[in-house]
Structures
1.
Amino acid sequence: MRIHSVTLYHVRMPLVATFATSTHSRDQRDALIVEVRDTDGYIGWGEVVAGFAPHYSPETTITAEHVLADFLIPALFDGPVHHPGDFLDRVAWVRNHNMAKAGLEMALWDLYGKRLGRSLRDLLGGTRERVPVGVSVGLQESPQALVQVVAAYLEQGYRRIKLKIKPGQDVMFVRAVREAFPDVPLQVDANSAYDLETARTALRPLDDMNLLLIEQPLAYDDLWDHHKLQKEFRTPICLDESITSAEKARKAMEMDAARVINIKVGRVGGLTEAVRIHDLAAANKVPVWSGGMLETGIGRAANLALASLPNFRLPGDISATDRYYRLDITHERFALNDDGTITVPQGPGLGVRVNREALAFYTLHSMSYYAE
Ligand code: NPQ
Ligand code: MG
């Protein structure tokens, strides 16, 4: 593939409902959409999931735009790309900025698949046609309010519920949901809101609530204290923020700091690295599942393709489009099947078509870059 040009669109999309985690609360989603065009006229799309502010990870929409414009896109223009993985090798010298790398790599995968007439799912080695999904429920005012929100999602057909927690809004809230729905598959995510001392005492009662896992209770870059916490809990500790590469995943598994791994394409620097983590976890008998970053239809399609791989053994945070957006930037909208799954797109590449009118409607600014 010879790349002709790249266009970056900074979009800001209103969310259907405010989403609150231990770190912050948002009612709109910023993202950077990447359009890659090759010299034969094929187009590929990608999504950079970094947010407006660096609450979840160090990157933001604007740092990603900077790193793409000044380093990653010039490297892409440096020569032909035979495979999306080639491009990542060429920019391995760029430290971190995983979400920026992943957004451009995703566009190259889409382009690569369209050129070959093959779906991303097939290219990645996916085996399933539909994948089990769940919903991530933001922090609510009271345990009663939370139970009502959960009831509504169960009504819609979600078969697994993830509750956000933080100090002061944890045990009472989770217990209320567990008592209202004794059999529902349930898990919690603290987004790094505790330190080891507070976690081992405050979260203690959660160990008796039959949870699938406790996600990232401690610092966003920690492994060791998660290892120490796991020794005191029967419930599996799952890492999200801390796993930024296959190397980190290896170390976490070696020290028993992650009995489950949440895989996010952006956080780990692309689909190639995500598959590497999947394979490594499979070899260690550690189940993985697909996290979510409130993606548009582009990133959502990529998550579905990835989650069709065999070691994705827990439902993903890949909800239906209408859980987040009234109008998306893809013509395709993803909906829940009756069995609590979402169907993986089958068309070439990501298998979605961008709605250029919607994209323009949400775009704050865009910039095009051309190969020499
Ligand atoms: C997580 N996602 O697993 C992330 C956190 C996250 C679906 O729970 C705006 C506001 C964007 C909050 C992206 C889910 C966000 C956000 C991701 C939270 O930790
Ligand atoms: Mg998380």
Note: The chain has 13 helices and 13 strands.
2.
Amino acid sequence: MSKTTDEQFKNVVAHAKEYGFVFPSSEIYDGLSAVYDYGQNGAELKNNLKTYWWKAMVQMNENIVGIDSAIFMHPKIWEASGHVGGFNDPMIDNKDSKKRYRADQLIEDQISAYDKEGLTDQAEALQAAFDKALNSDNLGSLRELILAHDIKDPISGTANWTEVRQFNLMFSTQMGAMAENADLVYLRPETAQGIFVNYLNVQKSGRMKIPFGIAQIGKAFRNEVIARQFIIRMREFEQMEMQFFVRPGTEMQWYEHWKQLRLNWHLALGTDAAKYRYHDHTKLAHYANAAVDIEYDFPFGFKEVEGIHSRTDFDLSQHQKHSGKKMQYFDPELGEDGKPYGNYIPYVIETSIGLDRMFLLTLINAYEEEDLSTAEKQDSRTVLRLHPCLAPVKAAIFPLTKKDGLPEKAREIMANLKTEFNLQYEEKDAIGKRYRRQDAIGTPFCITVDHQTLEDNTVTIRHRDTMAQERVPADQLDRIIGDLVSWNNVLR
Ligand code: GAP
């Protein structure tokens, strides 16, 4: 990472705290690792991202419905899904520092270090050996690579490593008051299983016909060993997932469909397409027959934001086996042979996006330190060029002064608009300072009420991006703001 992008990222993190987007959790107790709280502007931005996703997935598609399943679920669900047995990270401990690391992460860091030093041959050789080790699922070969490349613990500086062991990422807790492990429950590590176990409830109660989808937004929990890069890897985070149930044999066509649609969803926000790329999985999970990540070019490199997975009938078949309940769908439509397709377990295409990663992407993409200097004076501003649909505050209302009835008039205008838009009223400081505060949180409009307003009911409206100002009738503000922040701008 070059110094400038490193600094820029640090500035975004500092900005997120200073302006009420993201705070470290439990900060007055020195924080809790890899856990974060969203502040007053962060909560609004997050809600707007959820709305954008929900509208695009549920409201715009007649054959997709949304649910909200519980975080606690029957522990057998996680046995059926494979999470109890296989949701692990390979861990290695340094015997001198007693610190624990993800073995795969140590190797990836070494590849980046070779790259940075211009040692391309070493980087490529280690990458090839690493891919081979991952494909073989041989934990011992990860340790061999760590030793062969003399990868040292950054704390102790030694390469005195233990064996590599698997470490399950699920959090567990007790429910009720039962003996021993009889009451063990897990905090869900993905929202998807809440959809699978409800698929027949939804299908029957909603009279859904294949192909159809079930969407859900909710918290997920993973005991990540390496907490990194701010809200990229958290222990408590939010997912927006959709499972699309299809006829077996049609899954690849739906996989391609959702792969394209999901990228379009990102690009409709106006983000530079060059910042995105697809990354096809070469090593597929045991349940998948195709998988791709949508990655974004963060200041620290391309990172996964969303996954599209063709999960076959694995999850539903597993639940049928473990619960003893039929998971089959009866398809009355006629196939090419003129006979009904009949009973089958549907195949599933999943789209799964991390809301917190999407949040960070949005913030980084919007953040700009703009130089406004002229020959006469030095000037600058920090502006969040958020898409207006996503902006936490849609407009700020300023009386020019605190007297002459201007605050009353400003509040009257605000009262007419606030059922539709999230607004902020500010009368403190000079107008220029108030503009800067709104620029910093990405407010698309600032509306100033002055003495002329009292005479002809017009106001000045100042646009965040161009800083241009115009005079408009106050009774047209709902249309002007409404047009710019309308979901039509991103959903059509
Ligand atoms: N149901 C499929 C599933 O959970 P995943 O690739 O493990 O797939 C989906 O997770 C998305 O959730 C990722 O693309 C990422 O954006 C987000 N995600 C996963 N782990 C995360 C973590 N520890 N912190 C923040 N976001 C995470």
Note: The mean pLDDT is 94.
